[in-house]
Design goal:
Keywords: ATP-binding, Nucleotide-binding. By secondary structure, the chain is an alpha/beta fold. The chain contains 9 helices and 12 strands. α7 links the parallel β9 and β10.
Length: 247
């Protein structure tokens, strides 16, 4: 599904990714762990097409297409979703309207018919219920006045509505208490643990992986993947830290 080969990227002319290679197949969940400043969030931003992140070398294909040649909205329509470490607030923009416009824009890009207001509300209500969110919250401005846990639940509702093929989740566990972490973990499994989908989890800690069991764990240090393994690698990192394993 996703093939990253020798990826180099800079931010403000500073090299961040320095030869990163990674392959993710459909049906797989991969976790990337590593110290601060290693390039984990940069990888997510590069894959999603965020402005200011310049690829200087390497290639990325997504379902056989050149991802780097796509505009951000084209990547989203192709099935890529980026979950933010700190979801942004958008004052004055209704959550429901935002999500309906986003979904129908993607459907149009794919050549599908837009959902009617009633069809969309039925879908949104089902996803909100699954995440324990009141529909009234979806009528409020995007993330405005939400707690950290509510923002992450709202992001899971967004992911459920948009139904991506590949979810890149950047420290989704950040700011979550134990109960919220469980609910978000269950949401990831419910939406994305399917044979035709894949997940790239970016995290510092083992705790999210207690709920979302990865198939592979990778250590990212100094802009490249320095070690890969199974779920046991995350436990080793938790015990030993990054110093020895990132080298």
């Amino acid at each position: 599904m996703l093939q990253i080969t020798n990826l180099h990227a800079t931010v403000a002319d500073k090299p961040i990714l320095k030869g990163l290679s990674l392959s993710i197949n459909a049906g797989e969940i991969h976790a990337i762990m590593g110290p601060n400043g290693a390039g984990k969030s940069t990888l997510g931003y590069v894959l999603s097409g965020r402005p200011g992140y310049e690829v200087t070398e390497g290639s990325v294909t997504f379902n056989g297409e050149d991802l780097l040649e796509m505009e951000p909205h084209e990547r989203a329509a192709a099935g890529l979703f980026l979950g933010f470490q700190y979801p942004v607030e958008i004052p004055g923009v209704s959550n429901v309207q935002f999500l309906r416009e986003a979904l129908n824009a993607q459907r149009k890009q794919r050549g599908d018919e837009p959902l009617s207001g009633g069809e969309f509300l039925k879908l949104a209500r089902a996803q909100a219920d699954a995440m324990g969110m009141d529909m009234e919250m979806l009528k409020r401005p995007v993330n405005v006045g939400f707690s950290g846990g509510e923002k992450k639940r709202n992001e899971m509702v967004q992911m459920g509505i948009l139904d991506p093929a590949l979810a890149i989740l950047d420290e989704t566990d950040s700011g979550l208490d134990i109960d919220a972490l469980r609910v978000v973990g269950e949401g990831i499994n419910r939406i994305m643990r399917k044979p035709e989908k894949a997940v790239l989890l970016i995290t510092h800690y083992q705790r999210l992986l207690d709920y979302v069991q990865p198939d592979f764990v990778h250590v990212l240090a100094d802009g490249r993947i320095t070690r890969s393994g199974g779920p046991e690698l995350a436990l080793e990192l938790e015990r030993e830290g990054y110093r020895e394993l990132a080298a």
